[in-house]
Amino acid sequence: MNSNSCPSKGAEYEDKAAQHLLAHGLALVCRNYHCRQGEIDLILRQDKMLVFVEVRYRQNRRHGGALASVTPQKQHKIRLTAQHYLAAQHLNESRQACRFDVVAFEGDEVLWLRNAF
């Protein structure tokens, strides 16, 4: 089986994160939004709030774990990408309520950190 015929670990955990968030009442808007500034794994809506989600997986907590892997540099890139998304969708940044969440998988544990940064 070649690598193109099976999903990547990243896609597998993005699917799991999306399922987890959908089960908690969020609605999927977009997956893997790309622009020059970076990528956002999942964009969802919770009521009138737009939720930008970074999905991280680590097999264990060595080297800080999944949550620690969302560095200040990564957060900055996600914010820039979110600004690009809002502009591309013609949503007024100052009026659209947004938050940044992280869904982290460490082994079999799922951690959903709302308003992560």
From TrEMBL:
InterPro entries to which the protein is assigned, alphabetical: Restrct_endonuc-II-like, tRNA_endonuc-like_dom_sf, UPF0102_YraN-like
Similarity section: Belongs to the UPF0102 family.
Protein name, per record: UPF0102 protein GCM10023095_21810
Native source species: Pseudaeromonas paramecii
Organism lineage string: Bacteria, Pseudomonadati, Pseudomonadota, Gammaproteobacteria, Aeromonadales
UniProt-listed PANTHER family: UPF0102 PROTEIN YRAN
Residue ranges of coiled coil: none
